[in-house]
Structures are given as C-alpha cells and as structure tokens.
C-alpha cells in the first residue's frame, strides 16, 4: 500500500488534487471528512466540497478518532482519503471546550497528543492506500496570539511526522504539485 | 503564443523574475500595471518598481478592466506582462467603495466575477505572449477577519484558474523558480 | 567552499535539515545561534534546539554582528551553520530599543543595513562552508501593522540577496527539500 501526503495552502487546490489521485487509483474509496459544520461558513464549505465528489464513495465524518477510522476501514482493495489534518488538529485543540490565554504558555489537552500518536500508529498498520490532505500554514508572518503560534507549531510538527511516514509527499500551489518525496503522482 | 503564470510570496522576487523573462523574449513589451497610487506607501512601491524597468516598454495603468487591455494590446509580436493579479483582485474587491463586515458572509460586487470571467476569456483569445504575476497568499495562518479570509479564498481560486489556462507556471522563492507546469523558463 | 541557503516556514524542519547537512559534511562545525532568550517561550525553543545538536559542535551566540563572526571563525576545514537569519533580522530591527508606529513610514536604524552589508561581504570572503537558515514569511495574507509589513519586505529582500550569493538553495516543507538552486543536497 502507498501512503501519500498532499500539502498545500488554503484554496491551493489540494483537495481536488487528492480526489483526482483517489479516482485514478481505481480502488474503492473511503472518504474521511474531519470537518464539523460548526458554523454557516463551514457548512457551506462542506456542501461545496461534497458536491464535487463521486457518489459511490463511502463518506465517514470523524472529527477526532482518525486513527480508529483508519483501522476500521483498513482493507487492501481500498483507498482511504483523509481531508483534512488541519481541521482535525483544530478539533483536537478545542475538543473539550478549552479556552486558551492570549499570551503565555498553552497547555494542550491529553487527547491532543494521544490522537496524534494513534494516527501515526494506525497509518503504519493500515493495509489500505492512504491519502492525507493537510495545510501548509508556516510560510506567512508569525501570528501574534499564543494559540495561533501554538497551532502553527503543532501543524508544522504534524506535517513533518506524517511526511516521514509517507512514501510520497507533494506541495500543491495553484492546483499543481511540487514533488517533495517519492515518485511524481 | 505562450502564457506564463509567475506565482510568489511578497518580496519573493517574482516581479524581477517576470521582467527578466519579458526582456529575454526579445518581443515588444506592454507592461500593464494594476497598482493605483492610493497612498504614499503604494506610490513609493510603484516608483521603486518603475525605475527598474526598460524605458522602451509601453506602460499601461489599468486597475480594473484587465481583460479589455489584453485584447486591446493583443498582437503576435508582443509580450504583455501583467503585474500583478493580487492588486487587481483587491481593486475589484473595493471597486465601488464597499465596506465589508468584520464577521459573517461577504457579498461581492457583480464586477468582481465579471472582470475575472473577462480576463479568462481574453487570455484564451489574446494573440500575444502573456506573463501574469500573482501572489501566493494561502500558506500562512488563516487570518481572523472575514474579508481577509474571503480575499485569501478568492486569490487561491484565481491562481488555480489562471494556472489551468497557462502553458507554464512557476512558484518563485528568494528570486528563484520552482517549476509547477511546463518547461523550465 | 560551498554556501547553502535553507529556506522554510515556521516548524518546517529547516533547522533539522540544515543540521543533518552539517553532520554529513564531516567538517568541524561552528554553530552560530542568533536567538537571544528574551522571554520564556524563546528560552524554551533554544533549549529544545540545543538538545538536538552534537556535543562536539562549537556554539557561538551572536544576536547582531553576524558578518564579524563569519570572518572570525573562517577556516577551510570548517562549516559554519547560522540559525537563523530571521531572528537576526528581528534583532537588528529592535536593536536599540526602537518603538515603531502602527501606521506610516518605518525608519530603520543605521545598524540594520550596515550589518546586512557586512554579512554579504563576509559571506563572499569566508573560507569555510556556510549554511544559512532563514524563514519564508511572504506566502500568507499581508499583515496589517506597518512593522510587520516592513519585516516581511526586508526578510524577502534579505532572502533574495542571500540566495544570489549562495551556490545552493532549498525550500523546506514538512522536513523535505525542494531545490531552488544548485545540486540536490
């Protein structure tokens, strides 16, 4: 099985690119959506994305237990597409209604690292092809708020960890891939 | 004719890179500046850029009707350099003195999508070589304000649309190109 | 001697990548840290980084006079690793306790350009291999404050200048390099 990380900025076309890869695989596709429709803007984004996906795909909504879902749907004939790790990381960060201070040290909930460890472990044990979609968020000016800086750091760490576990990685800009690792896809 | 998209961050050297391509083409160059000198900082940036360009270039200032200008100057022996789509998108967004809310849904002026459609159409019909310069703005932390998020989304969509219509696309960092599409240039 | 620029976003893995290159060189390594432990968050980052470096490296802390240090440690059998130019640029910007206005024109201290000129000059005269680590900060939404915009511009200009003087340059994302210039490393 092949593990692929699709990195890209906001509105970079990374989701469309990942979906094209999934279609071209010819495998049965399980699409794991990490978004939760917490407000109208997000609900609209979810609708917009869903309308563009093939109807035969199995869609699973999972805001938190991503590792469990990878193991649950694991099968050699399948491809599991996770879109995206950035919303998932945000879900973990705010999972138990935490409020974070504007300045100073951020204390992360235990779930935060537990679920990331479970994803890493599941990724190495899953017998399906896996495509992970994630945002590049570290190439702008450092944000002022403590929680934004924490998020930027944690997203960067997660992207590095996932890239190390994947066979292929690309950075998407304007819908087009730059190969970071593995064969062009 | 060849259509080229030059993407890059702020102060990435994307304009200088595009100007070098234009000079090396050996063609008559029409330079379309989308900047309007709305404040002293912008006026200074415009002066700084202009001083670096060859005197024989035809310079056209066009904040809004970019598609029209592409057709007006269309000629096989010419190269049209547009710098840049990001200022143009900002001009369209604030074209009729709109004020946008800090939160909630943004309603874009009709001009906003009309002019983008006209650019796409003109780009496919223009008989000149065209170089489009545009900013990559989606690789930082998601900004808080509704209009900044809207701008980030729309810039990303525009970059994807232009990249799809272009024969070549590069992402410039520190003055150096990464090839996204087509032959190295 | 070889000069290498390692560009990358925050938490992109650029420091680890640079450190791996330094180890693989087999040379005596002088590590120049530009960070100053001005607050507890930064002190923690410094501790975290230091723990990951080989004990036999010579560590030099230099917040401002980077060019001088390159010449001081210059020797053909050495590799000098500078981490990072972004903290250094921030140090120069705030070197004499300046307070900058929220809007309007920023007047930079004389030291700001003097030290950058000295770095460029020293880089061309240094007989050691040199690796420079620097942040890509221009690929997000333009920040609102005048000093943040100034920093973004100046970082972009510095990255362009350093890339022009280096034999090799890479952009790191998720710990993986995209080659901007020179041979893959």
TrEMBL record, chains A, B, C:
Which GO BP terms apply?
Answer: cobalamin biosynthetic process
Task: Give UniProt keywords alphabetically.
Answer: ATP-binding, Cobalamin biosynthesis, GTP-binding, Kinase, Nucleotide-binding, Nucleotidyltransferase, Transferase
As recorded in UniProt, coiled-coil segments are none
- CDD domains per the record? CobU (cd00544)
Q: Which reaction does it catalyse?
A: adenosylcob(III)inamide + ATP = adenosylcob(III)inamide phosphate + ADP + H(+); adenosylcob(III)inamide phosphate + GTP + H(+) = adenosylcob(III)inamide-GDP + diphosphate; adenosylcob(III)inamide + GTP = adenosylcob(III)inamide phosphate + GDP + H(+)
EC annotation from Swiss-Prot or TrEMBL? 2.7.1.156, 2.7.7.62
One example of the protein's molecular function in GO is: GTP binding
- Pathway(s) it belongs to: Cofactor biosynthesis; adenosylcobalamin biosynthesis; adenosylcobalamin from cob(II)yrinate a,c-diamide: step 5/7; Cofactor biosynthesis; adenosylcobalamin biosynthesis; adenosylcobalamin from cob(II)yrinate a,c-diamide: step 6/7
Q: Where is the active site?
A: 49
Query: Which superkingdom heads the taxonomic lineage of this protein's source?
Result: Bacteria
Q: Which residues bind GTP?
A: 8-15, 33-35, 50-53, 61, 83
Write down a Pfam family by its short name: CobU
Answer whether the UniProt record assigns the keyword Transcription to this protein: no
Family the entry assigns = Belongs to the CobU/CobP family.
The record describes the protein's role as:
Catalyzes ATP-dependent phosphorylation of adenosylcobinamide and addition of GMP to adenosylcobinamide phosphate.
Recorded protein name is Bifunctional adenosylcobalamin biosynthesis protein
Q: What is the species listed in this Swiss-Prot or TrEMBL entry?
A: Duganella fentianensis
């Amino acid at each position: 099985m092949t593990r692929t990380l699709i990195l890209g900025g906001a509105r970079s076309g990374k989701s469309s690119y990942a979906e094209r890869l999934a279609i071209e695989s010819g495998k049965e596709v399980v699409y794991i959506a990490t978004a939760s429709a917490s407000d109208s803007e997000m609900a609209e984004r979810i609708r917009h994305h869903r309308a563009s996906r093939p109807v035969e795909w199995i869609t699973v909504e999972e805001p938190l237990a991503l590792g469990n879902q990878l193991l649950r749907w694991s099968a050699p004939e399948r491809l599991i597409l996770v879109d995206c790790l950035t919303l998932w990381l945000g879900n973990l960060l705010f999972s138990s209604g935490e409020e974070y201070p504007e300045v100073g040290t951020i204390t992360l909930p235990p779930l935060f690292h537990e679920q990331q460890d479970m994803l890493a472990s599941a990724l190495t044990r899953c017998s399906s092809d896996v495509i992970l979609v994630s945002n590049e968020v570290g190439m702008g000016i450092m944000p002022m708020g403590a929680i934004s800086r924490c998020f930027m750091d944690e997203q960067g760490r997660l992207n590095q960890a996932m890239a190390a576990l994947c066979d292929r990685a690309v950075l998407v800009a304007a819908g087009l891939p730059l190969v970071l690792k593995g064969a062009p896809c």
